[in-house]
């Protein structure tokens, strides 16, 4: 590893920050104070990751990263820690990478990107960081785009046609701030490249074995979720698609998963690896059979 040039100090409280800065100043150590509540992460296939703090890019790879998990902002620090661990960068407290939302589609975008698996171009943000980085986000977002929150079965997914609509969705009011403080959490969102399609594929897998494949066909030109009225039919995938789906499950640490992807001219693009997929009634018996055959002695 190259010699580190600086310290990135994330999410520190005032008293901690004061003592830290005093030593660094006396010792002529470069230190950057970064509030992750005001930071976003930009992911693009085959491109370097970008970390943005109040519209300015900051580097993580050349720093010792000291993360203080304090207050209601914890998802973005966990993503920074996950990146550092995967890249074997110097940081404190590796446990910081663990988060209650580590299994959801937002964290998965970073997991898939870190493993060089194709995703839509993605900006990870909160309503706080959106409003602190609006200039960068709007410069790097093509419309229409897709906005996704924490919900499942398509309940927190919106097609956004223009900047005005995105600004409205990401507006942060005083009442919202109070609710976040009371709940002790800030919701994270992803703003993604819109990939036009009429259908996608749901591949249900258990320990690398395909249990079933369906093609999910949209009725409204956007939502492919069966729970939102989409049609479906039994389908098949190619061997290459199966291998990529296996890698996607491994990247996200999921044995039983519903792998959602769309076919494009450049190959497949993953939308999500659903940890709790709706499954056909025959699948539980197949899973029990696989576990018995592989792990239990008769």
Write structural notes for this entry.
31% of the residues lie in helices and 28% in strands. It is α+β, with helices and mostly antiparallel strands and 298 residues long. The chain has two domains: 6-193, no CATH class; 199-286, D-amino Acid Aminotransferase, Chain A, domain 1, CATH 3.30.470.20. The strands form three sheets. The protein has a seven-stranded antiparallel beta sheet with strand order 5-4-3-7-10-8-9, with helices on both faces. Strands 13-12-11-14-15 form a five-stranded antiparallel beta sheet, sandwiched between helices. Strands 2-1-6 form a three-stranded parallel beta sheet, sandwiched between helices. Strand 11 (199-206) and strand 12 form a beta hairpin. Helix 2 packs parallel to helix 3 (105-114). The protein is globular, with a radius of gyration of 21 Å. It starts with 5 loop residues before the first strand and ends with a helix. The mean pLDDT is 91.
Task: Give the overall shape, derived from the CA principal axes.
Answer: globular
In the predicted model, the low-confidence regions spanning at least 5 consecutive residues are none
Q: What is the helix tally?
A: 9
Give a quick account of the main beta sheet: strands, pairing sense, barrel closure. 7 strands, antiparallel
- Counting DSSP E segments of at least 2 residues, the number of strands comes to 15
The spatial strand order of the largest sheet comes to 5-4-3-7-10-8-9
- Overall mean pLDDT: 91
Computed over alpha carbons, the radius of gyration is 21 Å
- The structural domain count equals 2
Strand content: 25-35%
Distance between the termini: 50 Å
In N-to-C order, the SSE pattern is EHEEEEEHHEHHEEHHEEEEHEEH
Helix share, percent:
25-40%
Task: Return the structural class.
Answer: alpha+beta
């Amino acid at each position: 590893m190259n010699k580190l040039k600086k310290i990135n100090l994330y999410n520190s409280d005032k008293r901690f920050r004061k003592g830290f800065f005093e030593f660094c100043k006396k010792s002529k150590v470069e230190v950057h104070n970064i509030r992750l509540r005001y930071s976003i992460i930009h992911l693009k296939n085959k491109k370097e990751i970008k970390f943005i703090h109040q519209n300015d890019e900051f580097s993580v790879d050349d720093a010792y990263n000291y993360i203080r998990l304090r207050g209601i902002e914890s998802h973005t620090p966990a993503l920074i820690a996950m990146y550092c661990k995967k890249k074997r960068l110097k940081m404190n407290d590796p446990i910081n990478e663990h988060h209650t939302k580590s299994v959801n589609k937002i964290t998965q975008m970073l997991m898939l990107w870190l493993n060089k698996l194709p995703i839509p171009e993605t900006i990870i943000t909160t309503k706080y960081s959106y409003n602190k980085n609006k200039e960068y986000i709007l410069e790097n977002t093509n419309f229409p785009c897709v906005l996704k929150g924490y919900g499942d079965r398509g309940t927190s997914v919106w097609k956004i046609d223009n900047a005005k609509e995105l600004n409205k969705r990401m507006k942060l009011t005083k009442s919202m701030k109070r609710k976040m403080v009371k709940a002790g959490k800030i919701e994270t969102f992803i703003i993604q490249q819109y990939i036009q399609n009429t259908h996608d594929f749901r591949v249900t897998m258990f320990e690398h074995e395909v249990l079933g494949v369906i093609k999910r066909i949209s009725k409204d030109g956007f939502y492919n979720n069966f729970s939102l009225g989409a049609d479906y039919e039994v389908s098949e995938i190619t061997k290459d698609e199966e291998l990529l789906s296996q890698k996607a499950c491994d990247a996200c640490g999921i044995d039983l998963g519903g792998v959602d992807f769309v076919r494009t001219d450049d190959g497949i693009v993953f939308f999500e690896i659903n940890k709790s997929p709706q499954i056909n009634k025959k699948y539980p018996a197949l899973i029990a059979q696989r576990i018995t055959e592989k792990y239990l002695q008769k």
